[in-house]
Amino acid sequence: MPTPISSRLIPPLRFDSPAVLPHSYFWTLDHSTNWMLDDPGMLNFGTGNRYLKRPETFLEDYRRLTDVTAALGIKSIVVWGFLRDSHGGIDYARRVAEYAASRGVAIMPGVGTTSYGGIYYEGNHPYNIQTFLRRYPDAHRVSEPGVASDGNGVCPSHPAFLDWLREGLHWLFDQFPIGGVNLENGDYTVCHCPRCKERMASWPADDCDFFRFQAMSYIPAVEFLRPHLKDKLITWATYTGFAFGMSPENRDHGRYIGDRPPAILDRIDPDAVAQWTMTGMVRPNTPYPAPVPLAAFLDDGAPAIAFEHPRWPANVRPTARRSVGFFHQGSQWHGVARRYACILGTIKEACLRAARAGFEGLGTHGEVTARCTPWLLNYLAFAHFTHRPEDSLRQFGSQTLATVLGNPDDGAAFVEVLAHWEAKSLTQDHRSLVKSRYDEIVRNVAAGKVDSLQPLQLWQWLDKLIEFPAGDPSPSVLMI
Protein backbone atom coordinates (compact mmCIF):
# COMPACT_ATOMS: atom_id res chain seq x y z
CA MET A 1 0.00 0.00 0.00
CA PRO A 2 1.42 3.46 -0.86
CA THR A 3 2.67 5.65 1.97
CA PRO A 4 -0.29 7.88 2.92
CA ILE A 5 0.16 11.29 1.35
CA SER A 6 -1.35 12.76 4.54
CA SER A 7 1.89 12.03 6.38
CA ARG A 8 3.40 14.91 4.40
CA LEU A 9 0.35 17.12 3.74
CA ILE A 10 -1.26 17.05 7.19
CA PRO A 11 0.00 15.23 10.29
CA PRO A 12 -2.60 12.94 11.89
CA LEU A 13 -4.61 14.89 14.44
CA ARG A 14 -5.39 13.54 17.88
CA PHE A 15 -8.34 14.81 19.90
CA ASP A 16 -8.90 13.90 23.54
CA SER A 17 -12.64 13.38 23.11
CA PRO A 18 -15.00 12.08 20.39
CA ALA A 19 -16.31 14.45 17.75
CA VAL A 20 -19.37 16.44 18.78
CA LEU A 21 -20.43 16.33 15.12
CA PRO A 22 -19.35 12.75 14.36
CA HIS A 23 -21.06 12.31 10.98
CA SER A 24 -19.25 15.18 9.28
CA TYR A 25 -18.06 14.74 5.71
CA PHE A 26 -16.41 16.27 2.69
CA TRP A 27 -18.71 16.81 -0.30
CA THR A 28 -17.18 16.46 -3.77
CA LEU A 29 -17.88 16.40 -7.49
CA ASP A 30 -15.46 14.09 -9.28
CA HIS A 31 -14.59 16.46 -12.14
CA SER A 32 -13.62 19.37 -9.85
CA THR A 33 -11.91 17.38 -7.09
CA ASN A 34 -8.32 18.41 -7.78
CA TRP A 35 -5.69 17.00 -5.44
CA MET A 36 -3.23 15.97 -8.17
CA LEU A 37 -2.52 19.14 -10.10
CA ASP A 38 -0.75 18.04 -13.26
CA ASP A 39 -3.69 16.68 -15.25
CA PRO A 40 -4.71 19.07 -18.09
CA GLY A 41 -8.34 17.97 -17.75
CA MET A 42 -8.84 19.68 -14.38
CA LEU A 43 -11.94 21.84 -13.94
CA ASN A 44 -12.74 24.23 -11.10
CA PHE A 45 -16.26 25.34 -12.01
CA GLY A 46 -19.70 24.01 -12.81
CA THR A 47 -21.69 20.98 -11.73
CA GLY A 48 -22.85 18.93 -14.71
CA ASN A 49 -19.50 18.85 -16.52
CA ARG A 50 -18.02 15.89 -18.31
CA TYR A 51 -15.04 14.20 -16.66
CA LEU A 52 -12.02 15.28 -18.71
CA LYS A 53 -9.15 13.97 -16.58
CA ARG A 54 -7.47 10.61 -16.97
CA PRO A 55 -9.09 7.68 -15.15
CA GLU A 56 -5.88 7.25 -13.14
CA THR A 57 -6.29 10.79 -11.85
CA PHE A 58 -9.68 9.85 -10.41
CA LEU A 59 -7.93 7.20 -8.30
CA GLU A 60 -5.11 9.52 -7.23
CA ASP A 61 -7.33 12.51 -6.43
CA TYR A 62 -9.45 10.42 -4.09
CA ARG A 63 -6.47 8.56 -2.64
CA ARG A 64 -4.95 11.86 -1.56
CA LEU A 65 -8.24 13.24 -0.31
CA THR A 66 -8.85 9.99 1.59
CA ASP A 67 -5.44 10.21 3.28
CA VAL A 68 -6.08 13.76 4.42
CA THR A 69 -9.64 12.92 5.51
CA ALA A 70 -8.29 10.10 7.68
CA ALA A 71 -5.57 12.34 9.14
CA LEU A 72 -8.17 14.96 10.07
CA GLY A 73 -10.46 12.46 11.79
CA ILE A 74 -13.34 13.10 9.38
CA LYS A 75 -15.37 9.99 8.68
CA SER A 76 -16.87 10.27 5.18
CA ILE A 77 -16.49 11.60 1.65
CA VAL A 78 -19.53 12.20 -0.56
CA VAL A 79 -18.66 11.51 -4.20
CA TRP A 80 -20.94 12.77 -6.95
CA GLY A 81 -19.81 11.03 -10.11
CA PHE A 82 -18.69 7.93 -8.20
CA LEU A 83 -19.64 5.74 -11.17
CA ARG A 84 -18.73 7.02 -14.65
CA ASP A 85 -17.61 5.13 -17.70
CA SER A 86 -15.09 7.90 -18.46
CA HIS A 87 -13.04 7.33 -15.30
CA GLY A 88 -12.98 3.59 -15.04
CA GLY A 89 -16.56 2.67 -14.26
CA ILE A 90 -17.18 -0.13 -11.79
CA ASP A 91 -13.53 -1.20 -11.40
CA TYR A 92 -12.14 2.22 -10.51
CA ALA A 93 -15.10 3.11 -8.29
CA ARG A 94 -14.53 -0.10 -6.35
CA ARG A 95 -10.84 0.72 -5.96
CA VAL A 96 -11.68 4.17 -4.58
CA ALA A 97 -14.15 2.70 -2.09
CA GLU A 98 -11.82 -0.12 -1.03
CA TYR A 99 -8.89 2.21 -0.43
CA ALA A 100 -11.05 4.58 1.61
CA ALA A 101 -12.43 1.69 3.69
CA SER A 102 -8.87 0.50 4.38
CA ARG A 103 -8.12 3.95 5.84
CA GLY A 104 -11.28 4.07 7.95
CA VAL A 105 -13.06 6.53 5.66
CA ALA A 106 -16.56 5.87 4.30
CA ILE A 107 -17.31 6.68 0.67
CA MET A 108 -20.89 7.92 0.20
CA PRO A 109 -21.86 7.95 -3.49
CA GLY A 110 -24.18 10.72 -4.60
CA VAL A 111 -27.40 9.10 -5.84
CA GLY A 112 -29.97 10.95 -7.89
CA THR A 113 -33.38 9.41 -7.39
CA THR A 114 -35.22 11.23 -10.19
CA SER A 115 -32.38 13.31 -11.67
CA TYR A 116 -28.59 13.80 -11.48
CA GLY A 117 -27.65 10.57 -13.16
CA GLY A 118 -29.32 8.03 -10.93
CA ILE A 119 -27.25 5.33 -9.22
CA TYR A 120 -24.70 5.12 -12.07
CA TYR A 121 -23.89 8.79 -12.65
CA GLU A 122 -22.84 8.69 -16.31
CA GLY A 123 -22.53 5.84 -18.78
CA ASN A 124 -24.34 3.10 -20.63
CA HIS A 125 -25.52 1.19 -17.57
CA PRO A 126 -28.95 -0.08 -16.51
CA TYR A 127 -28.96 2.07 -13.36
CA ASN A 128 -28.14 5.30 -15.16
CA ILE A 129 -31.12 7.63 -15.63
CA GLN A 130 -30.49 8.33 -19.32
CA THR A 131 -30.29 4.60 -19.97
CA PHE A 132 -33.56 4.13 -18.09
CA LEU A 133 -35.24 6.86 -20.14
CA ARG A 134 -34.07 5.34 -23.40
CA ARG A 135 -35.76 2.13 -22.33
CA TYR A 136 -38.88 3.92 -21.07
CA PRO A 137 -39.25 7.12 -23.12
CA ASP A 138 -42.66 7.73 -21.56
CA ALA A 139 -40.99 8.05 -18.13
CA HIS A 140 -39.72 11.59 -18.67
CA ARG A 141 -40.74 14.04 -15.97
CA VAL A 142 -43.45 16.45 -17.15
CA SER A 143 -41.89 19.81 -16.38
CA GLU A 144 -44.98 21.87 -17.22
CA PRO A 145 -48.59 20.75 -17.32
CA GLY A 146 -48.80 18.43 -20.33
CA VAL A 147 -45.22 19.08 -21.55
CA ALA A 148 -42.68 16.25 -21.22
CA SER A 149 -39.22 17.39 -20.19
CA ASP A 150 -36.46 16.98 -22.76
CA GLY A 151 -33.93 16.69 -19.93
CA ASN A 152 -32.95 13.75 -17.76
CA GLY A 153 -35.60 13.99 -15.07
CA VAL A 154 -37.69 10.89 -14.33
CA CYS A 155 -41.32 10.70 -13.30
CA PRO A 156 -41.44 8.84 -9.94
CA SER A 157 -44.97 7.62 -10.69
CA HIS A 158 -43.95 5.65 -13.77
CA PRO A 159 -44.76 1.93 -13.26
CA ALA A 160 -41.13 0.88 -13.85
CA PHE A 161 -39.52 3.48 -11.61
CA LEU A 162 -39.71 1.87 -8.17
CA ASP A 163 -38.37 -1.48 -9.37
CA TRP A 164 -35.48 0.33 -11.09
CA LEU A 165 -34.70 2.37 -7.96
CA ARG A 166 -34.88 -0.60 -5.60
CA GLU A 167 -32.75 -2.85 -7.79
CA GLY A 168 -30.18 -0.12 -8.38
CA LEU A 169 -29.76 0.73 -4.71
CA HIS A 170 -29.43 -2.92 -3.74
CA TRP A 171 -26.84 -3.40 -6.50
CA LEU A 172 -24.85 -0.39 -5.29
CA PHE A 173 -24.57 -1.66 -1.72
CA ASP A 174 -23.89 -5.23 -2.85
CA GLN A 175 -21.08 -4.27 -5.22
CA PHE A 176 -19.10 -1.64 -3.28
CA PRO A 177 -17.78 -1.29 0.30
CA ILE A 178 -19.50 2.05 0.82
CA GLY A 179 -20.56 3.76 4.03
CA GLY A 180 -23.86 5.22 2.90
CA VAL A 181 -25.34 7.43 0.20
CA ASN A 182 -26.20 11.08 -0.31
CA LEU A 183 -29.66 11.20 -1.93
CA GLU A 184 -30.78 14.07 -4.13
CA ASN A 185 -33.79 14.30 -6.42
CA GLY A 186 -33.08 17.34 -8.59
CA ASP A 187 -33.47 20.47 -6.45
CA TYR A 188 -36.82 22.22 -6.90
CA THR A 189 -38.23 20.02 -9.64
CA VAL A 190 -41.85 18.88 -9.92
CA CYS A 191 -43.61 16.44 -12.26
CA HIS A 192 -47.02 17.57 -13.53
CA CYS A 193 -48.19 14.30 -15.05
CA PRO A 194 -51.67 13.02 -14.05
CA ARG A 195 -50.25 10.15 -11.99
CA CYS A 196 -48.04 12.46 -9.92
CA LYS A 197 -50.86 14.96 -9.46
CA GLU A 198 -53.09 12.21 -8.17
CA ARG A 199 -50.50 10.96 -5.71
CA MET A 200 -49.57 14.45 -4.55
CA ALA A 201 -53.23 15.21 -3.81
CA SER A 202 -53.01 13.02 -0.70
CA TRP A 203 -50.49 15.41 0.84
CA PRO A 204 -51.35 18.55 2.82
CA ALA A 205 -52.41 21.25 0.41
CA ASP A 206 -50.11 23.84 1.98
CA ASP A 207 -47.00 21.69 1.51
CA CYS A 208 -44.75 23.02 -1.24
CA ASP A 209 -44.93 21.06 -4.47
CA PHE A 210 -41.23 20.30 -4.59
CA PHE A 211 -41.33 18.79 -1.08
CA ARG A 212 -44.21 16.57 -2.14
CA PHE A 213 -42.31 15.57 -5.26
CA GLN A 214 -39.21 14.77 -3.17
CA ALA A 215 -41.24 12.48 -0.98
CA MET A 216 -42.35 10.37 -3.92
CA SER A 217 -38.81 9.12 -4.49
CA TYR A 218 -37.06 9.73 -1.16
CA ILE A 219 -39.51 7.73 0.96
CA PRO A 220 -39.30 4.55 -1.14
CA ALA A 221 -35.52 4.92 -1.53
CA VAL A 222 -35.09 5.08 2.23
CA GLU A 223 -37.45 2.14 2.64
CA PHE A 224 -35.34 0.10 0.23
CA LEU A 225 -32.27 1.01 2.31
CA ARG A 226 -33.85 0.15 5.64
CA PRO A 227 -31.31 -2.65 6.39
CA HIS A 228 -28.52 -0.05 6.22
CA LEU A 229 -30.07 2.79 8.20
CA LYS A 230 -28.60 1.80 11.57
CA ASP A 231 -25.00 1.24 10.52
CA LYS A 232 -24.50 3.53 7.51
CA LEU A 233 -25.16 7.21 6.86
CA ILE A 234 -28.15 7.67 4.55
CA THR A 235 -28.73 11.38 3.96
CA TRP A 236 -31.39 13.07 1.86
CA ALA A 237 -31.08 16.63 0.60
CA THR A 238 -33.87 19.06 1.50
CA TYR A 239 -32.25 21.88 -0.55
CA THR A 240 -33.47 24.34 2.08
CA GLY A 241 -32.81 25.60 5.55
CA PHE A 242 -35.24 24.81 8.35
CA ALA A 243 -36.23 28.20 9.75
CA PHE A 244 -39.65 27.97 8.14
CA GLY A 245 -41.66 31.14 8.58
CA MET A 246 -38.70 32.94 10.14
CA SER A 247 -37.14 34.58 7.11
CA PRO A 248 -38.22 38.16 6.33
CA GLU A 249 -39.63 37.01 2.99
CA ASN A 250 -39.78 33.30 3.87
CA ARG A 251 -37.95 32.28 0.74
CA ASP A 252 -35.03 30.02 -0.03
CA HIS A 253 -33.10 30.39 -3.31
CA GLY A 254 -35.97 32.62 -4.44
CA ARG A 255 -38.64 29.95 -3.93
CA TYR A 256 -41.42 29.88 -1.39
CA ILE A 257 -40.79 27.08 1.13
CA GLY A 258 -43.80 27.42 3.42
CA ASP A 259 -44.49 28.45 6.98
CA ARG A 260 -44.02 25.05 8.58
CA PRO A 261 -41.74 22.01 8.15
CA PRO A 262 -42.69 19.77 5.21
CA ALA A 263 -44.87 16.70 5.70
CA ILE A 264 -42.09 14.41 4.46
CA LEU A 265 -40.46 14.73 7.88
CA ASP A 266 -43.42 12.91 9.43
CA ARG A 267 -43.52 10.18 6.76
CA ILE A 268 -39.92 9.26 5.98
CA ASP A 269 -38.09 6.75 8.18
CA PRO A 270 -36.62 8.83 11.05
CA ASP A 271 -33.32 6.91 10.88
CA ALA A 272 -32.61 8.55 7.54
CA VAL A 273 -30.74 11.83 7.99
CA ALA A 274 -32.11 15.11 6.67
CA GLN A 275 -29.41 17.22 5.01
CA TRP A 276 -30.29 20.88 5.52
CA THR A 277 -28.76 23.58 3.34
CA MET A 278 -27.07 25.95 5.79
CA THR A 279 -25.61 28.25 3.13
CA GLY A 280 -28.15 30.97 3.89
CA MET A 281 -28.47 30.15 7.59
CA VAL A 282 -24.88 30.94 8.45
CA ARG A 283 -23.60 34.33 7.50
CA PRO A 284 -22.57 34.59 3.85
CA ASN A 285 -19.60 36.46 2.48
CA THR A 286 -21.84 39.38 1.58
CA PRO A 287 -22.57 42.74 3.23
CA TYR A 288 -25.81 41.67 4.97
CA PRO A 289 -25.82 39.94 7.25
CA ALA A 290 -22.08 40.55 7.44
CA PRO A 291 -19.86 37.57 8.30
CA VAL A 292 -19.03 37.15 11.97
CA PRO A 293 -15.65 38.88 12.37
CA LEU A 294 -12.77 36.57 13.19
CA ALA A 295 -11.96 38.95 16.02
CA ALA A 296 -15.29 38.08 17.65
CA PHE A 297 -14.23 34.42 17.77
CA LEU A 298 -10.63 35.10 18.77
CA ASP A 299 -11.14 34.67 22.51
CA ASP A 300 -14.84 33.82 22.70
CA GLY A 301 -16.08 30.52 21.32
CA ALA A 302 -19.73 31.60 21.38
CA PRO A 303 -20.09 35.38 20.91
CA ALA A 304 -23.63 36.75 20.83
CA ILE A 305 -23.24 37.96 17.24
CA ALA A 306 -22.94 34.35 16.03
CA PHE A 307 -26.59 33.79 17.01
CA GLU A 308 -27.96 36.95 15.39
CA HIS A 309 -29.24 35.95 11.96
CA PRO A 310 -32.68 36.58 10.42
CA ARG A 311 -32.62 33.16 8.75
CA TRP A 312 -31.70 31.27 11.91
CA PRO A 313 -33.01 32.69 15.18
CA ALA A 314 -31.14 31.33 18.17
CA ASN A 315 -33.99 29.16 19.45
CA VAL A 316 -34.85 27.43 16.14
CA ARG A 317 -33.90 23.77 15.71
CA PRO A 318 -34.73 21.32 12.91
CA THR A 319 -37.75 19.10 13.48
CA ALA A 320 -36.16 16.04 11.85
CA ARG A 321 -35.00 13.46 14.40
CA ARG A 322 -31.62 13.21 12.66
CA SER A 323 -29.96 16.10 10.83
CA VAL A 324 -26.75 17.14 9.14
CA GLY A 325 -25.98 20.45 7.48
CA PHE A 326 -24.23 21.36 4.24
CA PHE A 327 -22.91 24.80 3.30
CA HIS A 328 -21.55 26.11 -0.01
CA GLN A 329 -19.24 28.85 1.22
CA GLY A 330 -15.74 28.32 -0.13
CA SER A 331 -16.93 26.67 -3.34
CA GLN A 332 -17.54 27.43 -7.00
CA TRP A 333 -21.20 28.10 -6.15
CA HIS A 334 -19.98 31.46 -4.87
CA GLY A 335 -17.65 32.08 -7.81
CA VAL A 336 -14.32 30.56 -8.79
CA ALA A 337 -12.32 33.04 -6.68
CA ARG A 338 -14.34 32.20 -3.55
CA ARG A 339 -13.63 28.52 -4.17
CA TYR A 340 -10.11 29.21 -2.92
CA ALA A 341 -11.06 31.44 0.00
CA CYS A 342 -10.19 31.06 3.66
CA ILE A 343 -13.55 30.57 5.45
CA LEU A 344 -12.47 30.02 9.06
CA GLY A 345 -15.27 32.20 10.43
CA THR A 346 -17.97 30.38 8.48
CA ILE A 347 -16.67 26.98 9.56
CA LYS A 348 -16.51 28.03 13.19
CA GLU A 349 -20.01 29.57 13.10
CA ALA A 350 -21.54 26.57 11.33
CA CYS A 351 -20.01 24.06 13.74
CA LEU A 352 -21.06 26.04 16.79
CA ARG A 353 -24.63 26.49 15.67
CA ALA A 354 -25.02 22.96 14.34
CA ALA A 355 -23.76 21.43 17.57
CA ARG A 356 -26.13 23.51 19.68
CA ALA A 357 -29.02 22.58 17.39
CA GLY A 358 -28.39 18.85 17.87
CA PHE A 359 -26.93 18.09 14.44
CA GLU A 360 -24.99 14.87 13.91
CA GLY A 361 -22.59 16.37 11.41
CA LEU A 362 -21.74 18.94 8.78
CA GLY A 363 -20.65 18.78 5.17
CA THR A 364 -18.20 21.14 3.53
CA HIS A 365 -16.39 20.90 0.23
CA GLY A 366 -13.29 18.74 -0.07
CA GLU A 367 -12.33 19.42 -3.66
CA VAL A 368 -9.32 21.73 -3.28
CA THR A 369 -5.92 20.33 -2.42
CA ALA A 370 -4.43 21.20 0.96
CA ARG A 371 -1.47 22.61 -0.98
CA CYS A 372 -3.79 25.62 -1.36
CA THR A 373 -3.03 27.37 1.94
CA PRO A 374 -6.51 28.78 2.60
CA TRP A 375 -7.88 25.25 2.33
CA LEU A 376 -5.15 23.81 4.52
CA LEU A 377 -6.47 26.21 7.16
CA ASN A 378 -10.09 25.37 6.33
CA TYR A 379 -9.49 21.63 6.65
CA LEU A 380 -7.69 22.01 9.97
CA ALA A 381 -10.45 24.27 11.29
CA PHE A 382 -13.20 21.90 10.13
CA ALA A 383 -11.52 19.01 11.95
CA HIS A 384 -11.04 21.07 15.11
CA PHE A 385 -14.49 22.63 15.37
CA THR A 386 -16.40 19.45 14.50
CA HIS A 387 -14.68 18.02 17.58
CA ARG A 388 -14.69 21.15 19.73
CA PRO A 389 -17.33 23.55 18.41
CA GLU A 390 -17.32 25.73 21.54
CA ASP A 391 -13.59 26.52 21.30
CA SER A 392 -12.29 29.97 20.44
CA LEU A 393 -10.19 30.74 17.40
CA ARG A 394 -7.16 31.12 19.64
CA GLN A 395 -7.72 27.64 21.05
CA PHE A 396 -7.83 26.30 17.52
CA GLY A 397 -4.52 28.04 16.87
CA SER A 398 -2.74 26.87 19.99
CA GLN A 399 -3.95 23.28 19.68
CA THR A 400 -4.72 22.05 16.14
CA LEU A 401 -2.89 24.65 14.05
CA ALA A 402 0.06 24.18 16.38
CA THR A 403 0.44 20.58 15.20
CA VAL A 404 1.40 21.98 11.79
CA LEU A 405 3.28 25.11 12.84
CA GLY A 406 5.26 23.30 15.51
CA ASN A 407 4.26 24.96 18.77
CA PRO A 408 1.22 26.49 20.54
CA ASP A 409 2.60 30.03 20.59
CA ASP A 410 3.03 30.15 16.83
CA GLY A 411 -0.47 28.75 16.28
CA ALA A 412 -2.05 31.34 18.57
CA ALA A 413 -0.01 34.16 17.03
CA PHE A 414 -0.98 33.11 13.52
CA VAL A 415 -4.74 33.32 14.10
CA GLU A 416 -4.36 36.56 16.06
CA VAL A 417 -2.62 38.22 13.13
CA LEU A 418 -5.25 36.86 10.72
CA ALA A 419 -8.09 38.23 12.86
CA HIS A 420 -6.47 41.64 13.19
CA TRP A 421 -5.74 41.80 9.46
CA GLU A 422 -9.42 41.19 8.72
CA ALA A 423 -10.42 43.81 11.31
CA LYS A 424 -7.94 46.32 9.80
CA SER A 425 -6.26 46.63 13.20
CA LEU A 426 -2.83 45.18 12.46
CA THR A 427 -0.05 46.74 14.49
CA GLN A 428 3.62 47.02 13.64
CA ASP A 429 4.26 44.32 16.24
CA HIS A 430 1.98 41.97 14.31
CA ARG A 431 3.82 42.68 11.07
CA SER A 432 7.20 42.25 12.72
CA LEU A 433 6.14 38.93 14.23
CA VAL A 434 5.12 37.55 10.83
CA LYS A 435 8.32 38.76 9.18
CA SER A 436 10.52 37.27 11.89
CA ARG A 437 8.74 33.89 11.77
CA TYR A 438 8.89 33.81 7.98
CA ASP A 439 12.55 34.86 7.77
CA GLU A 440 13.54 32.32 10.41
CA ILE A 441 11.86 29.41 8.68
CA VAL A 442 13.30 30.43 5.30
CA ARG A 443 16.78 30.24 6.85
CA ASN A 444 16.01 26.86 8.40
CA VAL A 445 14.69 25.51 5.11
CA ALA A 446 17.81 26.67 3.28
CA ALA A 447 19.98 24.99 5.94
CA GLY A 448 18.02 21.74 5.76
CA LYS A 449 16.89 22.03 9.38
CA VAL A 450 13.18 21.33 8.89
CA ASP A 451 11.15 18.12 8.84
CA SER A 452 8.08 19.65 7.17
CA LEU A 453 7.43 22.51 4.77
CA GLN A 454 3.93 23.21 6.08
CA PRO A 455 5.15 25.99 8.44
CA LEU A 456 6.83 27.65 5.47
CA GLN A 457 3.65 27.32 3.42
CA LEU A 458 1.54 28.97 6.15
CA TRP A 459 3.88 31.79 7.19
CA GLN A 460 4.66 32.63 3.55
CA TRP A 461 0.93 32.89 2.83
CA LEU A 462 0.30 35.12 5.86
CA ASP A 463 3.31 37.28 5.01
CA LYS A 464 1.89 37.90 1.53
CA LEU A 465 -1.71 38.24 2.74
CA ILE A 466 -1.07 41.15 5.08
CA GLU A 467 0.34 43.16 2.19
CA PHE A 468 -3.26 43.47 0.94
CA PRO A 469 -5.94 45.62 2.56
CA ALA A 470 -8.67 43.59 4.23
CA GLY A 471 -11.57 43.19 1.81
CA ASP A 472 -9.33 43.28 -1.26
CA PRO A 473 -10.47 40.42 -3.54
CA SER A 474 -6.88 39.49 -4.39
CA PRO A 475 -6.35 37.27 -1.28
CA SER A 476 -9.17 35.03 -2.48
CA VAL A 477 -6.83 33.71 -5.13
CA LEU A 478 -3.66 33.88 -3.03
CA MET A 479 -3.19 30.12 -3.04
CA ILE A 480 0.48 29.66 -2.10
Structure description:
The protein is of the alpha/beta class and 480 residues long. The chain is built from 16 helices and twelve strands. Strands 1-2-3-6-7-10-11-12 form an eight-stranded parallel barrel. A two-stranded antiparallel ribbon has the order 4-5. The chain has a two-stranded antiparallel ribbon with strand order 8-9. A hairpin with a 2-residue loop joins strand 8 and strand 9. It is globular.
Q: What global shape is seen? A: globular
- Can you list the strand order of the major beta sheet? 1-2-3-6-7-10-11-12
Largest pleated sheet? 8 strands, parallel, barrel
Query: What is the end-to-end distance?
Result: 30 Å
Poorly predicted ranges (pLDDT <50, ≥5 residues)?
Answer: none
Structural class: alpha/beta
Query: What is the gyration radius calculated from CA atoms?
Result: 23 Å
Percent helix, as a range, is 25-40%
Question: What sequence of helices (H) and strands (E) makes up the elements?
Answer: HEHEHEHEEHEHHEEEHEHEHHEHHHHH
